[in-house]
Sequence to fold (1120 residues):
Amino acid sequence: MMARMLQLDRRILIGGIILVVLVALSLLTPILPLGDPAKVAAGPRLSPPSWLFPFGTDQLGRSNLPRVLQAIQSTCILSALAIALTMVVATPLALFAAYRGGLIDQGVMRIADVLFALPPMLMAVLVAAIVGPGWLASVAAIVMISLPLFLRIVRSAALSVARRDFVTVARLSGASPLRVVFVHLLGNIIGPLTVQFAYALSVGMLIESTLSFLGMGMQPPAASLGSLLFTGTPFIAIAPWLVLLPGLVLTLIVIAINLLSDGLRHAIDPIEQQGIA
Amino acid sequence: MRLLQFLTQRLLISAVTLIGVSLLIFVAMRLMPGGFEDIILGPFASDAARAATRARYGLDQPVLVQYGLWLKAALGGDLGSSMISQLPVADEILRRAPATIQLAVMALLIAIIVGVPLGVVSAVGRKGNPLVPLARGVGVFGLGVPDFVLGAILVYLFSRFQLGLNVGGFVPLAADWQANLRVMTLPAITLGAFGAAQLQRVTDVSAREVMTQPHILAAIARGDAPGTIIVRHVLRNASIPVLTAASTFFGYLLGGTIVVEQLFSVPGIGQYVITALTNRDYAVVQAGVLVGASFFLAISMIADIAYAVLDPRVGDPS
Amino acid sequence: MLKHSTRSGWIARLGALLLGAVASLSALPAWAADNAITWGKPSEILGYDPHVETNGVSWQFLFLTYETLVTTGQNLDVQPQLAASWTQDSPTSYTFTLREGAKFSNGRAVTADDVVGSIQRVIDPALASVWAAQLGPIKDVVALDAHTVRIDLAEPYAPLLAALANIQAAILPIAELKAGTFDPSKTLLGSGPYIVEAHNQDQSWTFAANPDYPEALRPKVPTLNVEIIPDDSARIAALRDGRVDIATFESPDVPALLAGIPNVETVVQATTNYYRLDVNALGENSPFKDARLREALTLALDRDAIGDIALAGTSQADYPLPRAFPQSDACAALPSYVGDRATRLEKAKALVAEVGNGAPVKVQLIASPSVATFPLIAQVIQSSLADANIEVEILQLPAADWLERSFTTGDFDFAVSWFTGYADPSLVLGWWNPDFAQWNKVFLPADADLSAQISLAKQTADGPERQALFTSICETIDAQAGIISLVGKPDIVGIRTDQINATIQPAEGYFQTLKNLPSFTRTGN
Fold:
């Protein structure tokens, strides 16, 4: 199965290239000759794209191109970090709950219920206010919102795997509980999890951008694509480049993640159905 | 009989969940730095004035005592009053609920009407069918564009070019349904776009899974009409994950939608609660969250019952 | 596409249905009624009791329904309101004669007892009103007859009339309040130009012209609707649609955003309000405990850049004594304002090098996003201070957190904030005396000389002697660098000139942005 996942198909290749190029450009921003993303009044306020400022300038006369590029890393890395963290917390917890069942299972699932029932944006604001504004607030909010989702997914995937014969065989043949859980269950749900990771990543970016809407995400002058979009939207009538360009980049990232996700899904479960219409 | 047992069990779990939610919110709000007295006194907060304000609203008592008092009153049906407007929270939430429910229903309808057919198209479409990339495109854009951006674009376009739908100026549905729809359509589209994208994706994924199953392959081999295959087999089998996604989306909308309510001046619950959170107007947040969570739990319970109807094999509610 | 006929038919029917629905809705209704003016306002009232409410956004409502003894005119000059006339009998005694026929909206005539009771209520320590101290050393308030009131002061107090003009000194129906039939924290019951007809919390208000108001001043248009529209873009859209006749804004970019809209005129109204920095000169962990770093801060600030960039040119450098006052000349030549920036920057750099032993100094700036311009101002400050090797980290704290840290715990380095400048120059200066403004105690050092000078300025009538005092006060404030004035905080008004005739007064001190509202008329009427 792992071997099949490594089989590169076109979607994985294209999605991967887009992401790698964007993140690389972003990481290289400080050494590329694009100007300082934090330089206030580098040009006139809200000036349209030109040779000097290829993405125009923002409300404080800063060049928009290095800002958009720099924002890619905060958006991608933050969301990826948050979702990875959620998976690291949720997977062992849910696997353990599914394997042990009973009170432990009940307890974990009731906590998931409580977290799931809270309106997500409200939870994001609460978490961000308690943690304090900044990148950590975004990560904490994404983790708290996606945690119940992952707990449920992993648990139900684990339960369905656990009913299959090979787990019972492993258990009867005297394998240790830990081994049963981690090797067999984990090995079999890694596929659905990876796909879920890609989806959650794009949701994570949305949560991050909404937190920026409330001023609680990245702190200025650092920016994420979400905070750029938020500060740009009031100017949609007179400086549309402030919304369209970061919006385009964000869409590109989501497309890339979707391609990766589709490709991975195909790699894991390669029976290609035929189109009928 | 089994349904009754199932319902009782779900109701019990929901009650426990609601108590958990209320306790979590109560403690979390008091963990937030800054309090109601800071907001109401602004920069003019002398120690004496702060103490007086805290005492007036009972904020000087231990948190658990405050929670106990709140829970006792809430169980008796009294959700308290806003410390800012002095108005009873229950009345205010009731007044705002119709707008929120209407917005949620409209957004859900848009999401289903747009999302599910597109999901089917992208799952069953042959290579080269121009609708397939279109369907996927909607899915990607809906997930990739934050609601405040889509909303701002709609606000600008519709007010700039007078496209017939209004931005703001809420009119209750009961007062004038035409005027109401003119105001509510844009926010519903803004919210529905995300749901449509989600449903497109979920329908796509689950329809694909179904499509590889032997009985569908057999039906295709038999030469059954595509429409029959889709309706009889694909949609029916994909309905549970789609229902789950749709109900989660709906429950989330009923919790209030902060950004869109603000952008389109819709007097709903989300705006009420988020303003209260900023103002540390504790009773309002507490009640708003409780109502949102109750909606959410009720919807997921209804969805569970629907599963049982759609797929009789789903007997075990756990 | 599916070749199955029923399905494509279904889609076609649905599409037709949706298109039909939109088409049937597409005729825009006529918004504006002939007998009403609609005001698009960003915020709802936060508190009803004028004597304790400190938020300007609430005052904008209170001014519609309540009256004060005197009011301010088009240029912050004192004008009669509930008092038709007054005399100053001695340096410490004023007599006011009430307007004939003034009535509260419940129909009862306003009496001298209401005035006495209202002023006594404001200064009652039990109420803990912020305005008590600003009303000055009031010794006694007495009703001479049903229409005459005398205020006696313990010592001369120049800003008395200006202080009485604030809505926080509003005249309430005291008899009803004492009888328990009127709760000022829940209802608006005054003698002002408007009466509340309907209120939909967080949505809208409807006011009717007060029929008992003097005819010359009574609202020309009988109904005033106030729509609460929190979002700037939505308020702009409402103005464009013509759904509101007039809208108020805080965002400095609004003039540019309104520029292309037909029939919309933008007015930038000067106010005595200004943005400021609160600098923590006392906190154990605040780097600004070091007076040298505070001096470097004032020298390195670029107020012009804040006005031009963060505030889009709608504002300019302001002094501790607000520029909107003619008396502000006294404070125009302070060390942190005069000379070219390069010279000031050199001095600042030298000071920072001393403080940091050659290394850059790191500080944290709180800029609450609760005021949209704060983060913008903070970023321009960050950029200017970088020129002097002060590295600023910006922290966007929610309002409650920011206020608690600034005014209670003192756990901050410096924070962006703003002052209401009121209607007499000496009123706002009072905030530099931490014994007077106790909430500033956590970060502002007490300076006995400064406090004495501020008190003296309050006792001194306008003239050269007062100007000299102002200069001296401003210099001390500039050197102390505890609260630093930045740039003016104008209000922005958008008017549909094809729908209404409106005049906006050039300067305002008490947040009464639309002071002339009663005189507005609909075009064509």
